[in-house]
Amino acid sequence: MSRDVLEGLFPNLVGTSWQKKSERDTCYNCIAWAACENHRRWWPSLYPGPDGDLDFWPEGVPRDETVDCFIRAFQTIGYRPCPTGNFQFGYEKVAIYADSEMTPTHMARQSFWGGWLSKLGDYEDILHRRLRDLEGDTSPHSYEYGIVVQFLKRSWWQTFKHWRGRHKLTALRSSRG
Predict the structure, then answer these.
(1) Position 83 pLDDT exceeds 50
(2) Global pTM exceeds 0.85
(3) Using CA atoms, how far apart are residues 66 and 97, in angstroms rounded to an integer?
(4) Among 37, 52, 141, 175, which lies 20 to 30 A Cα-Cα from 88?
(5) Mean pLDDT, rounded, of the chain
(6) Which residues of 134-161 are buried (b: 16+ CB within 10 A; e: fewer)?
(7) 10 Å Cβ neighbour count for 166?
(8) How confident is the model at residue 58 (pLDDT cuts 50, 70, 90)?
(9) What whole-number distance in Å separates Cα of residue 1 and Cα of residue 31?
(10) What are the two backbone dihedrals, phi and then psi, of residue 169, each rounded to the nearest 5 degrees?
(11) What string of H, E and C letters represents the secondary structure of the chain?
């Protein structure tokens, strides 16, 4: 998608130094991207998607579209609530955006350099400096992401363990192929 179109959808990006990091990809969404996954979509919906399958949601976490359920989902991969999104050496942070009814709309993941990585729906991944670059209308029927309402963090070691475990499983599946 062109820079002009993305800046039209997210007006707070105008005049900032955001960068496109990937091409359009429908295999994953912003929640999966925040969880460091790009091979499946994460969402708590009870209804199958266009492919007939439910999106992934961690076992034991209610499939409710609430901030609390998103926190619980990310606790299964080592995150815990924290007060701010300020860069903290040794930790990876994520931010949950929500609308005025506190329904989650988006998640962003902090990069190792302090900026933020976001998957824009089925579109590109971008790197943006500030969380407010994607904030916007909080009405429940808006296409905009609302505002950041919660931060979570996990140690870089937890991130590595999650990534390593997922890739070992993928390699095992491939070798059985």
Answers:
(1) yes
(2) yes
(3) 11
(4) 37
(5) 89
(6) bbbebeeeeebbbbbbbbbbbeeebbee
(7) 15
(8) very high
(9) 20
(10) -65, -45
(11) CCHHHHHHHCHHHCCCCCEECCCCCCCCCHHHHHCCCCCCCECCCCCCCCCCCCCECCCCCCCCCCHHHHHHHHHCCCCEEECCCCCCCCEEEEEEEECCCCCEEEEEEECCCCCEEEECCCCCEEEECCHHHHCCCCCCCCCCCCEEEEEEEEEHHHHHHHHHHHHHHHHHHHHHC
- Pairing label, strands 104-110, 116-119: antiparallel
Determine the Cα–Cα distance for residues 105 and 78; give it in Å rounded to an integer: 21
Place of tokens 């942070």: 93
111 CB burial (10 A radius; 0-12, 13-18, 19+):
middle
- Per-residue pLDDT tens over the stretch 131-153: 999 999 999 888 889 999 999 99
Return the domain boundaries, the chain: 3-176
Q: What is the pLDDT of residue 47?
A: 85
Lowest mean pLDDT among 1-10, 26-35, 71-80, 147-156: 1-10
Q: How many residues make up the chain in this entry?
A: 177
What is the average pLDDT across 96-112? 96
